[in-house]
Amino acid sequence: xxxxxxxxxxxxxxxxxxxxxxxxxxxxxxxxxxxxxxxxxxxxxxxxxxxxxxxxxxxxxxxxxxxxxxxxxxxxxxxxxxxxxxxxxxxxxxxxxxxxxxxxxxxxxxxxxxxxxxxxxxxxxxxxxxxxxxxxxxxxxxxxxxxxxxxxxxxxxxxxxxxxxxxxx
Length: 169
Prior knowledge:
Layout: E1 7-9, H1 16-30, H2 37-41, H3 45-57, E2 65-70, E3 76-84, E4 94-101, H4 110-119, E5 124-129, H5 133-141, E6 145-152, E7 159-165
Parallel strand pairs: 4-5
Antiparallel strand pairs: 1-2, 2-3, 3-4, 5-7, 6-7
Helix pairs in contact: 1-3
InterPro entries: Acyl_CoA_acyltransferase (IPR016181), GNAT_dom (IPR000182)
Domain N-acetyltransferase: 6-168
Protein name: GNAT family N-acetyltransferase
């Protein structure tokens, strides 16, 4: 455990119910006013937990890295994941899939620690909801820039942009 009371650790199957709750709480908070309210209200903690359970039970690429942000009592306050790019036209081999934190963990430095732990010192891309100003500001501060790729969130049509970070060689 770090001196600040926060730590990172890999998820276990025993974490899935809490992960489902945290995942949906983060989405409802982060996308309020950005995604349709009825979509956010319909998000299922149970379905999210089942997805986590399935993902953690299934063999995945050994390169995929998922870590939890936990407090001093080992309560989950967020998570992050990265691995090989999923895009056919990927400009980098590595993709940051997600950095999600509950409000209690924001401003603690854990988003930085999490990004460093799952991405490391490599070029990477990520997809972010275009109107998510907080996330875009964080990624920009961490060296990511708008790459020009555009997409839409499949369930809501919300605009997403692809950002890229290229490290100096």
